[in-house]
Amino acid sequence: MNLQELYLAGAGLVKLPEWLSSTSLFTLDVSSNRLVGKLPVWMAKMRNLHTLNVSNNGFHSDIPIEFENLARGLGVLDLHRNNFTGGLSTIFAVSGRFRYTFIDLSYNMFVGRIDNNIGNLESMAVLQTLVLSNNRLGGAMPKSLGKLSFLETLKLDNNEFTGTIPAELSSITFITSIVLSHNKLTGSIPSRVMNLLDIVEFDVSYNKLTGKIPPHKKPFPASSFVGNSGLCDSPLAPCKTA
Predict the structure, then answer these.
(1) CB 3.0 to 4.6 Å from 144: which of 24, 74, 86, 119, for a disulfide?
(2) Parallel, antiparallel, or unpaired: how do β-strands 177-179 and 136-140 relate?
(3) C-alpha dihedral sign at 232, 234, 237, 238
(4) What's CA 190's distance to the chain center, in Å?
């Protein structure tokens, strides 16, 4: 078939038709349906697929290993609001004729760590949006995130990340949004990260951060810092002096 784009969002689908595997689709949007079960293995045959949106469904289980063949051509991947489990390696560690520009895996049940080498992965070279919110991811935030030079949006909130906020994030010149709230991050806030030129959203609330909030030029609200009993200074209460 020569069908290039197929938009079936909210169409009441309960099953994906296998004939899709024989198409040359570039874009497939089946979001907000009633799809359940595992992501079909036959989707890996859709080698021309660039944009895949299966968000707001009931898919569950790990991402099948066959997905690596499909992902070699993906640039836009939206899996948010499903029940996917397992790790992220099958999604991230691929290479092909395209590179990811957009990834939203939020509101699932993914577990494990983010690959420490994520910033060097070929698939991530031109990534602009990375949203992993509301999963069960943990471990330290990789320092190599700072190598994602095209990144504009980074949202890792509502997970179980530990360790410090990587100062290397300050190397992402054009980033506008960093949301790290509701994790278990410790240590201080890197001053250069808060003062990135284009940053408009910065939220580290409800972690275990300590120390003085660095001086910053943008008017971040107090809600961006609450829930860290060890943080002080504007826009929170002044630091106590001995």
Answers:
(1) 119
(2) unpaired
(3) positive
(4) 21
104: number of Cβ within 10 Å:
21
Dihedral angle over CA of 146, 117, 103, 217, nearest 10:
-10
Joined together, the tokens standing for residue 77 give: 């991947």
The tokens of 56 are what? 């707001």
What was the pLDDT predicted at 98? 78
Burial class (CB in 10 A: 0-12, 13-18, 19+), 175: buried
Output the pLDDT for position 94: 79
Rounded to 5°, the CA angle 89-171-124 comes to 25
List the chain residues with pLDDT less than 50.
none
Position 191, amino acid: S
